[in-house]
Write a structure and sequence with these properties.
With 293 residues, the protein is an alpha/beta fold. Helices cover 39% and strands 17% of the residues. It has 10 helices and 12 strands. Strands 1-2-3-4-5-8-9-12 form an 8-stranded parallel β-barrel, surrounded by 4 helices. A two-stranded antiparallel ribbon has the order 6-7.
């Protein structure tokens, strides 16, 4: 069987980075057995790029993917974008030996407007073509909003059908939250998927304290809105089915991610998820030998 590589999406480590720094955080990641990371929600200052490179070299961690917006996601968003900082972002990729860039989400100002969506799609595909000339692939990461329909067609399909160079990073929790079967959707996108986000989908506890006061206005908040992000194996998704479908569809990297930890330590969450993947038979997928250098 061909293999992918299992890594970590660093968004869930923001608190640890603030507490102990990039270098020490990646040291802990390496001790958990992970050998690749995707960088997200980290300012790519010269100091941070240097620390990523140092940790990568010292701990044998491959910086598999970086994050870059096409343009600001919100009108007041700070930070680099491919529209304004293309050369700098390319240089960061080369410094870190990274061949994948991923777009976290389209601009919020585009949502609900098909014309603006198509404008974004055109820019993203043009940038993907320019990045390909530098041996860097650009991928779009989905949430649930991409399963809103425009003229009967999912937003995600609109992106796919109007691009040539752009690939897709499939987030299986958000696909499921959007109402679709992750394995089936990934197969539909076969050949354009290299990156996968692995996170489980769990129904959390119902807080019934509002019954003590008789305030039924709290019912919707405490009964309907209880979907949680979960450690792998702690929710309802079938990761064996998902991972096998992803590999068959061309996926190379599988990043463990959890958007909310509900007070748990992120390293503990990564340990639980890693143990589940090993129990499913993917122990060898933690090795750097599977990295797409």
């Amino acid at each position: 069987m061909n293999k992918g590589q299992i890594g970590v999406q660093m968004m869930m480590l923001k608190g640890k980075i603030d507490e102990i720094g990039i270098y020490a955080t990646l040291h802990e990641v390496s001790k958990l057995g992970y050998r690749s990371v995707e960088v997200s929600q980290l300012a790519m200052s010269s100091d941070n790029v240097s620390e990523l490179k140092r940790a990568s070299e010292d701990f044998g961690i491959h910086i598999a993917a970086l994050t870059a917006a096409v343009e600001p996601v919100t009108p007041r968003m700070q930070g680099e974008t491919l529209s304004n900082d293309f050369d700098k972002i390319v240089q960061d990729c080369k410094t870190l030996n990274c061949r994948f860039l991923r777009i976290g989400i389209l601009p919020f100002t585009s949502l609900g407007d098909k014309g603006k969506i198509l404008d974004f799609v055109k820019k993203a595909d043009e940038l993907a073509g320019r990045l390909a000339e530098n041996d860097i692939a650009l991928y779009y990461h989905n949430h649930h909003v991409e399963f809103q329909k425009y003229d009967g067609k999912y937003l995600l399909d609109i992106i796919k059908d109007n691009t040539t160079h752009l690939g897709f990073e499939m987030d299986v929790h958000w696909i499921y939250r959007g109402g679709l079967n992750p394995a089936a959707l990934i197969r539909k996108y076969a050949g354009r998927v290299s990156l996968i986000h692995l996170k489980d989908y769990r129904i959390g506890p119902v807080n019934m304290d509002f019954l003590q006061t008789g305030d039924m206005s709290k019912f919707r908040e405490n009964f309907h809105n209880i979907i949680q992000f979960a450690e792998l194996g702690e929710g309802s998704l079938d990761f064996k089915q998902i991972i096998d479908a992803s590999l068959e569809s061309g996926a190379k990297y599988f990043f463990v991610e959890q958007d909310d930890l509900y007070g748990r330590d992120p390293f503990d969450c990564l340990r639980v998820s890693g143990d589940h993947l090993r129990a499913l038979g993917y122990s060898e997928w933690f090795s750097l030998d599977n990295a797409d250098e």
